[in-house]
Design a protein that fits this description.
Elements lengths: L2 E10 L4 E3 L6 E3 L2 E9 L13 H4 L20 E5 L1 E2 H5 L11 E10 L8 E6 L5 E6 L2 E6 L6 E4 L9 E10 L12 E3 L2 E3 L7 E2 L3 E6 L2 E10 L5 E10 L12 E4 L5 E3 L2
Antiparallel strand pairs: 1-18, 2-19, 3-16, 4-5, 4-7, 6-15, 7-12, 8-11, 8-16, 9-10, 9-12, 13-14, 17-18, 19-20
């Protein structure tokens, strides 16, 4: 059984102090190396919308209408992430040239050699509007909430030291093209909240490796005292049993190499 523990440390800080997380391998998947294909035959308007991955898995997984091989063919465009469909596919300027529907964003990625008990996560800075995430053609995550960061545990779908294919199916139902954001967005017989009419992987993408016991989150909480802050840490234990380890918090002064270990 995995367990999460929330620890709160009360820090007496000089101005501009911060908390540094534990060191862990991180691999930046942003930039070059991605390929884009527009799935013009996808019947996305009639697709159901789900809130969770568990709900999405109750129905047949939707694949590229031209088959998975299309994502590694010469019909794809070399692109960079973050990026939008409009950035690479739009042929007419202005709102009239808006790209709606389904695009596939794919790349290969190398899984590092893992130690026993380590876990691998994908981090997305943001997507729009819906993202279905695949590892080696297996659905590993489903996100309908756009423009927010999220994390995906891909450990059950990969092997240590192998190369895998990452594919992200993005669906963009449209949106507004000014700053008012006042019009809801029709998706078949459904309505989505207002938003800008750009579709794609709109934030950075990365892969990180964590040990079986790791710091899952750090949240710095202000207090009425300007020299005091609360460091709220979430510790995740994936070992399935109680474990004892040291936890060290190091405070770094802003733009200063001097550091102070609290405990």
């Amino acid at each position: 059984m995995k367990k999460s523990i929330i620890a709160i440390a009360f820090l007496l800080l000089c101005p501009f102090y911060g908390v540094r997380a534990q060191e862990r391998p991180f691999f930046d998947l942003s930039g070059k190396g991605w390929h884009l294909w527009q799935d013009k035959n996808a019947a996305w308007q009639t697709e159901d919308i789900y809130l969770t991955l568990e709900e999405a898995r109750k129905t047949p997984v939707i694949v590229p209408t031209a088959g998975w091989d299309i994502l590694t063919s010469a019909q794809t465009l070399p692109v960079q992430v973050p990026g939008t469909a409009e950035e690479y596919l739009q042929t007419q300027s202005g709102p009239e040239g808006d790209i709606t529907g389904v695009t596939w964003w794919s790349r290969t990625m190398d899984i590092p050699v893992l130690k026993k008990g380590q876990k691998v996560f994908l981090n997305f800075g943001s997507i729009r509007s819906r993202a279905e995430i695949f590892i080696n053609q297996r659905l590993v995550d489903y996100q309908i909430v756009d423009n927010v960061p999220f994390e995906t545990d891909i450990t059950p779908y990969i092997k240590s030291g192998e190369q895998v294919q990452l594919a992200v199916r993005i669906t963009d139902a449209g949106g507004n093209h000014d700053w008012r954001d006042s019009r809801t967005i029709p998706w078949g017989d459904k309505m989505l909240p207002p938003g800008h009419g750009f579709g794609g992987i709109t934030g950075k993408v990365g892969m990180k490796v964590c040990n079986a016991v790791y710091v899952a989150d750090i949240y710095m909480q202000n207090t009425p005292q300007i020299t005091t802050a609360n460091a709220i840490l979430t510790l995740q234990n994936e070992k399935g049993k109680t474990t004892k380890q040291d936890l060290r918090i190091t405070v770094y002064e802003w733009q200063n190499k001097r550091k102070n270990s609290l405990f």
